[in-house]
Design brief:
With 696 residues, the protein is of the alpha+beta class. The chain is 36% helix and 18% strand. It is built from 19 helices and 25 strands.
C-alpha cells in the first residue's frame, strides 16, 4: 500500500512539474508606438526589424548608427521569466531634426522645451506577437551617436497621445559609471588607418576592408620592416644590353641587388601587438572595453604620447576621471591638455562589477605582447622564406636566359682565322674600303602595343640567321640597343624582317614585315598587331626555324613568359610593400618619415653630401626644382627616353645607370625625403609649394 501511495505521489509531482514547464508565456504590458488615429503615423521614420536569439548576447546597429546591446536573458515575459524562443526586435531611429519635425516628435516635457540628443523607439516581441519587457537587473545598453557630448543630458520616457503629441517624462540621469561593451565592437586602430587601407584596395583576394583584413594588416605592422630582395631585369633584357659587359669577361652580369633597412626607431608608435593584447578577453569588462577608452586612445594616437596607454593600464582599477585628470596635468602647455581636461570633466568612474587587477598586470601585458610579437614574426619569416625561394628560382631562370643571350650574340659574330709569325700589335681590318655596316638607330612602332598585356618585337637577318629582340619602355616604341638614343651597328643593303608578338589574356596577336636595310638614319617601321589563329601564330614564329636554338623566337618567348610572371610577382610584392609602408607611417605619424624613406630606398645609391653610385643630394631642390625631382623620382627611365636634357646628362655622367623608378611615391613622400636631406646637410628647408605628383 505504501509503495502504491508513493508511486501515485511521484506521478502527480512529475505531472505538476511538466505542467509548470510547459505553461504558456505570460505577456507583459503592451508597448504602443502610435495610435491608429495618429495623424502623423505615416511620417514616422523607417521601422527596422531584427530577429535575435535571447539565449545569447546580441548586438544590433540601426541604419542611423544607434547601437543596442541585448545581454543574454535581458528580455523577459510578464512573469519575469527569460524567453527562450526567437525574438523580433523593432527599432525606430529619429536623430535628425527633419525626422522629429515630420513625425511631430516634439521635444517638450510638461510644456517645457527640451534639447534632444536623439530619440528612438524600441520594442521586443516573440514571433507569435507576445509582448516582452526588460529585466531591470539585466538592462539593455543603448548608444546614440552624437557629434559631441553635452553635459547634463538625461534619459526620458516618451508618452505619445492619440492626437500625435509627445510628452517626455520621468527623466533619469545617465549613469556616470562605465558600461563595458564587446571588445570586438571597439575601434582601436590609429586615425586614418582604415581610410588609407580603403584607398589601397583591392588587395589580393579582398575587395573590401573586412575586419579580418584590417586586423591582419594592422597587427602585421608590429614586426614589419622593409626588407626585400628583388631581381632587376634591365628593361626587356636582351643581347644588346649585355654586349658591353660579356665581351670582356666570361662572367654573367649580376642583375640582383639586395638592400635591407635597419630596424625602425623604437618608441615612435604604439606596438600593434600591445593593441592585440588589449583586445583579448583579459580586458573584457574593464575600462579598456569601453567606448570611453576608445575615445581616449584615439587622442593618444594623435598626441604621440604613447606612454599614456601604459598609464591607463597602471591605474586600471582607479576611477577613469582621476586618470584623465592626472594626464591633463602632465600635459600642461600641450595642445592636448584641453581634451583630457574635458575627459576628466565627464566625471566617469568605473565599470560596474568590473574586473579587478593585481600588481602583476604590467608584467602580464609585456609577456603577452612579446609572445604575440614572436608569433607575428614567425608568420613574417615564413612569408619571407617563400618569397626568397621564388627569387632563387627566378634567378636561375634569368641566369639560363643570359647564357642563351650570350650564345645568341656569339652566333651573330663570325671569326677570322690566320697564321701569325710575329709578336706585337695585330689588327684585322678592311682598310679604307667601304664598310657594309654602319651605326644607326632602328625603331619599330607598334600602334596598338599599349593595349596588350605583353608585346615582344624581333629583328631578323635571314642571311646571317641572326635574331635580336628589341627593347621598349612603353610597349609602343621598340628600339635596337640599350637606350632609345643609342646607335648600334647594323648591316646595310640587306634583307631583313620584323616580327612583333602580342599577348592579351589568352589571345595571341602577331604582325610581320619584310624590308630592306639601306643605312637610313634613323630606320623606322610601323606595325599593327592583329589577332592570330594558332596556324598564323606558328607561321610567324617559323621564320627562325632552323636557326641556332638561341636565335629561335619560340625559345625566346618561352623565357619571356617565365620572366613576365616574375616581373608581375615582383610588381605585386613592391606594391604590397609600398602599401604596408603607407599604413606604417599612417599608424606612426610621429616617426621621421623622410629619414626612413631615404634609408629604405635611396641610401643604396646616394649619400646626402657626396657622390656614390648616384649624385650627392646636396641642395638638390635648388639645383633641379621640386617638380623635376618628383617626375624624375617617379619614373627616371621615362624622362631619359623623353630626351629631358638634365635626365640625359645625369644618365651619361653616372655610367649610363638609370635610377629605379618609384611610381608609388607621393608628393608628401618625396618632400619628406628632401626635407630630411636638407636637415642632414644644414640647408634651408625646401620650398615645395606648387608641386604635385603626376598621375600615372
Amino acid at each position: 500500500m505504501k509503495i502504491r501511495s508513493l508511486s501515485i505521489f511521484l506521478c502527480l509531482f512529475w505531472a505538476l512539474t511538466l505542467l509548470r514547464c510547459t505553461s504558456p508565456l505570460v505577456p507583459a504590458d503592451p508597448v504602443h508606438k502610435v495610435s491608429p488615429e495618429d495623424p502623423f503615423k505615416d511620417f514616422l521614420p523607417e521601422t527596422q526589424l531584427f530577429e535575435i536569439d535571447p539565449r545569447q548576447d546580441n548586438t544590433v546597429v540601426g541604419k542611423a548608427g544607434v547601437l543596442v546591446i541585448i545581454p543574454e536573458g535581458s528580455l523577459v515575459d510578464g512573469n519575469g521569466n527569460p524567453v527562450k524562443e526567437p525574438v523580433q526586435l523593432e527599432l525606430l531611429e529619429a536623430l535628425g531634426l527633419d525626422d522629429m519635425v515630420a513625425a511631430n516628435l516634439t521635444t517638450t516635457s510638461g510644456g517645457m522645451l527640451l534639447q534632444s540628443g536623439g530619440m528612438l523607439f524600441l520594442n521586443a516581441q516573440t514571433k507569435d506577437g507576445l509582448q516582452l519587457t526588460v529585466d531591470p537587473n539585466n538592462p539593455i545598453y543603448v548608444e546614440i551617436p552624437t557629434p559631441g557630448r553635452q553635459p547634463g543630458m538625461q534619459v526620458y520616457a516618451g508618452i505619445r497621445a492619440p492626437d500625435g503629441s509627445m510628452d517626455w517624462v520621468n527623466p533619469e540621469p545617465m549613469e556616470r559609471s562605465l558600461t563595458a561593451v564587446d571588445l570586438d565592437l571597439l575601434n582601436f586602430y590609429p586615425p586614418n588607418f582604415e581610410s588609407e587601407l580603403e584607398k589601397s584596395l583591392p588587395y589580393r583576394k579582398y575587395k573590401s576592408a573586412s575586419p579580418e583584413l584590417k586586423d591582419s594588416l594592422f597587427y602585421a605592422l608590429s614586426t614589419w620592416e622593409y626588407i626585400r630582395k628583388e631581381i632587376f631585369i634591365p628593361r626587356e633584357l636582351n643581347e644588346r644590353t649585355l654586349t658591353r659587359y660579356w665581351l670582356s669577361s666570361d662572367e654573367v652580369t649580376d642583375t640582383t641587388i639586395e638592400f635591407r633597412q635597419p630596424s625602425r626607431p623604437e618608441k615612435c608608435g604604439i606596438d600593434p601587438a600591445l593593441i592585440k593584447v588589449l583586445k583579448s578577453n583579459k580586458f573584457q569588462n574593464s575600462l579598456i572595453s569601453t567606448r570611453e577608452f576608445e575615445a581616449r586612445l584615439r587622442v593618444i594616437w594623435q598626441s604621440c604620447r604613447y606612454e599614456l596607454v601604459d598609464f591607463y593600464l597602471e591605474h586600471i582599477n582607479e576611477d577613469l576621471w582621476k586618470i584623465d585628470d592626472a594626464i591633463a596635468k602632465s600635459l600642461s602647455g600641450s595642445n592636448f591638455q584641453d581634451e583630457f581636461e574635458a575627459f576628466a570633466g565627464q566625471r566617469l568612474t568605473r565599470v560596474q562589477n568590473g574586473k579587478k587587477y593585481g600588481p602583476g598586470l604590467k608584467e602580464y601585458v609585456e609577456s603577452k605582447r612579446e609572445r604575440i610579437g614572436e608569433k607575428l614574426h614567425k608568420v613574417q619569416e615564413k612569408a619571407r622564406e617563400e618569397f626568397e625561394k621564388s627569387n632563387q628560382i627566378a634567378e636561375e631562370t634569368l641566369a639560363e636566359y643570359q647564357e642563351l643571350l650570350i650564345d645568341r650574340e656569339r652566333t651573330r659574330m663570325e671569326s677570322y682565322g690566320f697564321e701569325l709569325t710575329r709578336l706585337g700589335w695585330t689588327n684585322v681590318d678592311t682598310g679604307v674600303a667601304p664598310k657594309n655596316w654602319n651605326y644607326q638607330q632602328l625603331e619599330f612602332s607598334v600602334t596598338n602595343g599599349p593595349e596588350m598585356d605583353q608585346v615582344y618585337a624581333y629583328l631578323i637577318l635571314p642571311s646571317r640567321q641572326v635574331v635580336t629582340r628589341l627593347n621598349s619602355d612603353d610597349q609602343q616604341k621598340f628600339f635596337y640597343g640599350a637606350n632609345p638614343l643609342d646607335q648600334n651597328p647594323l648591316p646595310k643593303q640587306e634583307n631583313a624582317s620584323g616580327v612583333v608578338v602580342g599577348f592579351k589574356g589568352k589571345e595571341r596577336y602577331v604582325a610581320t614585315q619584310l624590308f630592306w636595310l639601306y643605312g637610313e638614319k634613323p630606320f623606322l617601321r610601323e606595325f599593327t598587331l592583329t589577332l592570330a589563329t594558332p596556324k598564323e601564330f606558328k607561321a610567324a614564329l617559323a621564320q627562325t626555324s632552323g636557326f641556332a636554338r638561341s636565335a629561335e623566337i619560340k625559345v625566346d618567348l618561352e623565357y619571356q613568359q617565365s620572366l613576365f610572371k616574375e616581373r608581375k610577382r615582383l610588381e605585386q610584392h613592391t606594391e604590397e610593400q609600398a602599401m604596408m609602408q603607407r599604413l606604417w607611417f599612417t599608424a606612426n605619424p610621429c616617426c621621421n618619415k623622410g629619414r626612413m624613406l631615404f634609408i629604405e630606398h635611396c641610401s643604396v645609391c646616394h649619400k646626402t653630401d657626396r657622390d656614390m653610385i648616384g649624385p650627392a643630394l646636396t641642395n638638390m631642390t635648388e639645383k633641379r626644382g621640386c617638380q623635376w625631382l618628383i617626375d624624375f623620382t617617379q619614373n627616371s627611365p621615362k624622362m631619359i627616353a623623353s630626351g629631358d636634357p638634365i635626365a640625359l646628362a645625369v644618365y651619361k655622367e653616372y655610367n649610363r645607370t638609370q635610377m629605379t623608378p618609384f611610381p608609388y611615391f607621393t608628393s608628401d613622400d618625396i618632400q619628406a625625403i628632401y626635407e630630411y636631406i636638407a636637415a642632414e646637410n644644414g640647408e634651408t628647408t625646401p620650398d615645395w609649394s606648387g608641386c604635385e605628383v603626376a598621375e600615372e
